[in-house]
TrEMBL record:
Name of the protein described by the UniProt record: Uncharacterized protein
Keywords: Repeat
Annotated region described as Disordered, given as residue ranges: 1-29
InterPro entries: SPMAP2-like (IPR042401), THEG (IPR006623)
Residue ranges with Polar residues bias: 1-10
Origin species: Dendroctonus ponderosae
Keyword flag Cell division: no
Entry keyword Secreted: no
Length: 111
């Protein structure tokens, strides 16, 4: 496939493929699959867990963060429509009750 390019360079001969030519050493090394990391994982598992890590006690903050959020019933009843399925043209109730300031009314006037 590299033969079809019209690029001329000194290193071009290494990348052309043909049945009679061998690939370069560098290209052959790049083509080898990566070695498994299982040997490293096994070495890490043999070390085990440090004794200081076994003595760790979670702080109040960590424990509070580990608990799921509480959703109040009031919040659920307030917005029963899912925002993803809600119509684009619908207006929120709070936007309908908005009272503009004098400055907003002034800016809204045509020049």
């Amino acid at each position: 496939m590299a033969e079809h390019f019209n690029v001329q360079s000194s290193s071009d001969k290494h990348y052309k493929t043909s049945p009679n030519k061998r690939t370069s050493d560098h290209l052959a090394k790049l083509a080898e699959p990566k070695k498994n990391i299982t040997a490293l994982e096994e070495a890490a598992s043999k070390k085990g867990v440090k004794p200081s890590a076994m003595k760790y006690r979670a702080t109040k903050r960590i424990l509070s963060l580990s608990k799921p959020k509480r959703v109040t019933v009031k919040k659920i009843d307030q917005n029963p429509i899912d925002p993803l399925t809600q119509s684009i043209t619908s207006v929120s109730p709070s936007a309908l009750m908005y009272k503009p300031t004098k400055r907003i009314l002034e800016l809204a006037q045509p020049k």
